[in-house]
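Dear support,

We are seeing what looks like truncated structure output for some complexes. This example has two components. We would appreciate it if you could run it in full and send us the complete token output so we can diff it against ours.
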Amino acid sequence: MNIRYMLGNEVIAQACLEAEIDFASGYPGTPSSEVIDYLRHQKDRDFYVEWSVNEKVAFENALAAAWTGIRSLVTMKHVGLNVAADPLLTSAYTGVTGGFVILSADDPYAHSSQNEQDSRRYALFAKIPCLDPASVREAHSMMRAAFAISEEVGLPVLFRPTTRICHSKSDVEPDVPGTGHRIGSFERNPQQYVVIPKHTRVLHKKLNEKQPAIAEMFVDRGFNTAEVRGTTAIISGGIAASYAEELISDDVSFAKIGAYPIDAAWLKAFVDQHETVLVIEELSPVIEEAVRMAATTTVVHGKMDGHLPFEGELSPAAVAQAMTSAGFAPTKTYPVVPPEEGIPARPPLLCAGCGHRAVFYAMKKVFKDGIFPSDIGCYTLGIQLGMVDTTICMGASITVGSGIAHSGEMRPVVCTIGDSTFLHTGIQGLLNAVYNGANMTVVILDNRITAMTGHQPNPNTGVTATGVASPPVSIEAICRSVGAPWVETVSSYDLTGLMQALQTAKDREGVKVIVARQPCVIAARREGIRRKPYVVDPEICTGCGLCVKFGCPAIEFHDGKAVITSLCSGCSVCADICPAGAIHKGGKQ
Amino acid sequence: MKESFDVLIVGVGGQGTILASNILGEACLVAGVSVRGAETHGMAQRGGSVETHIRIGGVYGPLISPGTADLIISFDLLEALRYRHFLKTGGTIITSDAVVIPTSAFTDGAEVPTTDEIMERLGDVSCTAIDAAGLAVEAGTILAQNVVMLGAASHALPLSVEALREAISRCVPPKTVETNIRAFELGRACLEQ
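Here is the complete output from our reference environment:
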């Protein structure tokens, strides 16, 4: 027996190996990133894997691979599915020949996301099957089955884990990876792959006709299960089902929804056997709406009558509370213990030596009255420095910036965007801003990697997902090619250079681009780059506190003097800030 | 049904809470006990407050709710206080006696309670603070504080010392096994009755 203690995402990737995956693509996004990371780090790899530049690109690549008859996976976080929504909705019409699984990882409580959307809605919208595992072990068995289901019904399958599946761990018994791979072969079939109106009308009808059999299959194969044990019932799905199972008493019936669409007749038969039903699920009331549609005389409790929240994530305690509130006695009760008060918050911070901090510092100095649209990445943490005024979705810093610039607002607009995000969906925004003559400054925070999600390479890194050297990409050349008339590159550690460039940008009209470049400090350390740390000379330090206000976690203040701790990575920016000249190189590496 | 033994490991991003929880998970495999865990990834790791849940003998969901943890292992004294509401009545806290001062204390003047104040506020629960940093240095590297803490907590865990030692040697880089075992033993010895 080979039992391992594995992360949910690793288990999901392992299941793909066992299912003999042939092709995988994705764009990093917490909590989904480790799936592709696990696949790309396999030593003996007999399948294709790539990090794509965005989710739409990743989706279309993987879809096409499935059209050639091979087994294909695409991964993203829930909001990435918005970017890929265009091909998603029509891929249900075309269908697939090879198994095609779309992994969209939801993030209830928005641990590291901009919203709490529910990917199950997308599956219903697109009319494709959706698998929603309740545990890490179930994620393993479901992902193994997902490719075959896709092939059987000829449709993409949406696999929807949540943060508490992706980033949970469990003892699991993985199987050995399969070895039976396929070679893609595209068979021309315009009626299926060319969705002109004449074809698509037929395809839509075919898609609708598939639905009842899929719903029945999920009952027949045990993805959706029901056990009658009394006159009241709990119906649950996803991770919430694992909380409910811990708390349900033996005389309460239990139905578990692991897959969608739900067979309406089956659900009605179960609901009809009970006087009262409580539906427990995270985020949207997807199961609850189906139950309410099915119920005739049965009383239905859930979110829609106030027993559970529509937002946030559930927990055993939250489920116990909902059960009590709906008249279902949980087998365990949880004390209500408030957290301690008066403890200083410890939010995540930009690292010591992170180049982004210096850029924000310079921007604040030069653009005192600026408006600062920003984007999605580590640099969103610049909000703590007062340098992030907007963040909505990937690539929206430049577009929000140009929108504000064209609104009549007179204050200068300076937006920040990372290299990976610029290549994801930033380029179009820049093209549009230049084309339409916006007056704004675009600062591209270039750290050569997709850092926030765990240091995945992108076209700007110089290597592919599998470590193969890739053609060099010039962000400056991209910017110039869309017509940006003024593009300047500065080291993110060069405070003087940054301020000069920003001042020049401020004095010019039109779209100004500054590429502030310095490798991610974590990635650089892994590559073996070491800089001598800096120290404060207490004899010279006047205790003015300017370096402390810089906000670097390596700088502390004790007994009226600044002190640099062992976290220092030697970026030297604080030495430039110190008006007394008290900070100099000299610490031990 | 047998209850799980619920352990919350807390600290500051970068202190090695995930390695510590991997060691506990691996020790469960060695001991043949089922296990569930939940971790903090992504944005929350950049020097922020982090929590790792681990349910030894767990078969359901991975999350531990407030008021139900059997044991809190804390790599930072301030974090022990932040998460103490997770402890069940009669539970135990084993913590490092050191505080990583939050940057907000310097940038915004946020008030940080002193070590004595924290210990006083934790006075109504079974809480033991140890010099994890000192013991880690004694073992050979400051980086082994997390394993020192596991050693100190080992008296309170429902896992054998053999299983924990075996798990450490499986989870840490091969070159550091000796140092980490030494760190574990030093941590364990400092709370020996």
